[in-house]
Amino acid sequence: RWRDVPGYIVAQVIGGLLAGGLIYIIASGKDGFEATGSMAANGYGAHSPDGYGLAAVLIAEIVLTAFFLWIILGVTDKRATPGAAGAVIGLALTLIHMISIPISNTSVNPARSMGVAFFHGDGAPGQLWVFWLAPIVGAVIAGISYKFVTDERG
After folding, report:
1. Using one digit for the tens of pLDDT, what is the confidence trace for 122-144?
2. Which is nearest to 35 in space by CA: 133, 118, 128?
3. Measured between alpha carbons, how far is residue 45 from residues 49, 110, 130, 133 in Å?
4. Which has more pLDDT, 34 or 69?
5. How does residue 119 score in pLDDT terms, banded at 50, 70 and 90?
6. Distance between CA atoms of 44 and 55, rounded to whole angstroms?
7. Fewest CB within 10 A of the end CB: N or C in the chain?
8. What distance in Å separates the CA atoms of residue 7 and residue 56, rounded to the nearest whole number?
């Protein structure tokens, strides 16, 4: 239900930040640990694992988020066979990560991006807007196009 969305977003962000903090605490237990470059924060330009620019990161994150949401919508559709949904979603997310870790360290979830950005530092918090905007745009594209393509019109 739409009224639950704000609470869900807040819970996701808090959970992401708590998880990022926990990762930081555990990782900093190693002598010589340096958070910058070690927290898998998302980024473009100098902050991209392989130096991808802003446009490439935006396109990849939008397309991959839309792809992921299409899969989720498809396997959870009332017309789908429910048994394999978890495996299909997990394998899709694995493929998305294999494709986009070199590009941006993979977002497709703003809470995941935010969860480590503030512990990573070094420009990651300033680039978070991309990793909020792209998944939202990708989700909107998936939601609208899925309904348009699959809607049964008597």
Report:
1. 888 999 999 999 999 999 999 99
2. 118
3. 9, 19, 12, 17
4. 69
5. confident
6. 9
7. C
8. 32
Work out the angle between the directed axes of helices 110-120 and 128-150 (0-180°, nearest 10). Answer: 170
Over the chain, what HEC string results? Answer: CHHHHHHHHHHHHHHHHHHHHHHHHHHCCCCCCCCCCCCCCCCCHHHCCCCCCHHHHHHHHHHHHHHHHHHHHHHHCCCCCHHHHHHHHHHHHHHHHHHHHHHHCCCCCHHHHHHHHHHHCCCCHHHHHHHHHHHHHHHHHHHHHHHHHHCCCC
> Six-digit token pair at 144?
């609208």
Residue 80 C-beta-side C-alpha neighbours within 13 Å: 15
Provide the token pair at 85. 């949904």
